Amino acid sequence: MISGVLFFNQKGENLIFRQFRNDCRPRLSDVFRIQVISNAQVRSPILTLGSTTFSHVKHENIYLVAVTKSNANAALVFEFLYRLITLGKSYFGKFDEEAVKNNFVLIYELLDEILDFGYPQNTETDTLKMYITTEGVKSERNVVEDSTKITMQATGALSWRRADVKYRKNEAFVDVIEDVNLLMSAGGTVLRADVSGQIVMRAYLSGTPECKFGLNDRLLLDGGEPQQGGNKTGSVGTAKTTTRAAAGSVTLEDCQFHQCVKLGKFDTDRIISFVPPDGEFELMRYRATENVNLPFRVHAIVNEIGKTKVEYQVAIRANYGTKLFATNVVVRVPTPLNTAGIQTRTSQGKAKYEPSENYIVWKIPRFTGQSEYVLSADATLTSMTNQKAWSRPPLNLSFSLLMFTSSGLLVRYLKVFEKSNYSSVKWVRYMTRAGSYEIRF
Fold first, then answer.
1. Which of 29, 42, 107, 363 could form a disulfide with 14 if both were Cys (CB 3.0 to 4.6 A apart)?
2. Do 334 and 358 meet the contact criterion of CB atoms below 8 Å apart?
3. How many Cβ atoms sit within 10 Å of the Cβ of residue 1?
4. Tell me: the pLDDT tens digits for 169-189?
């Protein structure tokens, strides 16, 4: 699949060259240097010359390049490159040119371990650190003690988790984090509204527990089947479904699961069943474009009085329940470039004119549900000989809102099963944030 992996610095110097197949020649490093690094017009991360394809990503001050000759899975190649960056960070702290030069021997060792004849293998950091360390070669006794663990990781099903994990207190924390995006017209019509969500879990559970996760009342699939990442161990590709899943009255699209999720059970029982990695990981990623619950409604009136004055009237109302409250609510209202001064009045919070950004910044530390606050402002403009019409860019809103989801997604249950039958404590938290939340006026 991958014929070779190359590292370059910004000057085009080849730092790492590791070939896995005979069709990857050293002269290819010169081709990439000339065609990509020296060519400022190149913007695409994929360059195909004849039968050779260069897939590259830039991180810090280095280029990571995968060379392929066959019709390879491009998504899998880039997933591998980003996993390689994550692996480098975990070993070296900061993965840059200096780290590559100081640890090139270890990098070659890692490449030989995670790629077998160009096919991605196990890229899990915890597993690799069991027998590849930055301190040097392990003692013979440690090698014997770890041999059974290495064998299990190499031949078993759980490359992402060790079997000897132990905790005094068994806990699982689940965070449902959503970024809501909105573009509303001046007339109040929603032009675009969608939610980008993720379910992040922190599992501090002993042994190898099996967790079952339920969303809303039911979970259905419409269309094709979810697909597993295409590699031998499943350690690089994550489980993905390009179909649409409906959770009760909630419609989720582009669902993407962590590799630990058993997609067979998801298909038959509509239950997310998995053996979690130890610590923090992203269980699921999704999008929602239907029935989006907008946490805030903003109504803005802007009047231009001649060429010397602009009047603002901005009202913002919270659409969520009275028991909830948002924090760090910031409304940025754009002003003309020739603004000389601003006078503001607010019913809540503080407003300040930021000349360097051409914005009135209105900050409300705590916004209780079902409340409505108003900002009134007068902008004084300077006269200009060649004055252009004001483009009126949209105002934007940022906020954080706990225990609320714009998609309507709810965690119905989280069950933990382990052979020792220990009791565990589960915590669920919801967080909605502003992605691109813009209102035209």
1. 29
2. yes
3. 22
4. 999 999 999 999 999 998 889
Return d(Cα 130, Cα 410) in angstroms, integer.
Answer: 38
Q: Helix and strand tally (H, E) in the chain?
A: 7, 26
Q: Are the C-beta atoms of residues 369 and 318 closer than 8 Å to each other? A: yes
Answer yes or no: are the C-beta atoms of 359 and 397 closer than 8 Å.
Answer: no
Report how far residue 330's alpha carbon sits from residue 311's, in angstroms, rounded to the nearest whole number. Answer: 20
CATH number for position 391 = 2.60.40.1170
Residues 6+ apart with CB under 8 A from 305: 311
pLDDT of residue 227: 39
CA distance 396 to 22: 54
- Average of pLDDT values for 127-149? 51
Which of 97-101, 119-123, 163-167, 248-252 has the lowest average pLDDT? 248-252
CB within 8 Å of 112: residues ≥ 6 apart? 18
Which range of residues forms the domain containing residue 69? Answer: 4-123
Q: What is the pLDDT of residues 411-426, one digit of tens each?
A: 888 999 998 999 999 9
Among candidates 269, 273, 279, 241, which has minimal Cα distance to 260?
A: 273
pTM: 0.67
Could you tell me if 228 and 234 are in contact, meaning their C-beta atoms sit under 8 angstroms apart?
Answer: yes
117-131: b or e for each residue (b if 16 or more CB lie within 10 Å)? ebbbbbbbebbbeeb
CA atoms 94, 96, 99, 100: torsion sign:
positive
pLDDT at position 145, please? 41
What element of type H or E holds 100? helix 97-102
Residues 55, 58: Cα–Cα separation, whole Å: 11
Lowest mean per-residue pLDDT among 53-57, 101-105, 134-138, 354-358: 134-138
Using CA atoms, how far apart are residues 114 and 236, in angstroms rounded to an integer? 10
Q: What is the DSSP letter of 406?
A: S
Mean pLDDT of 322-346: 94
Q: What is the DSSP string of 5-63?
A: EEEEETT--EEEEEESSTT--THHHHHHIIIIIT-TT---SEEEETTEEEEEEEETTEE
* pLDDT number for residue 399: 97
Given 86, 103, 123, the domain boundary residue is 123
Residue 413: inside a domain:
yes
Residues 376 and 360 occupy one common structural domain? yes
Same domain, 308 and 286: no
Say yes or no: 336 and 365 in one domain: yes
Whether the predicted pLDDT of 391 surpasses 50: yes
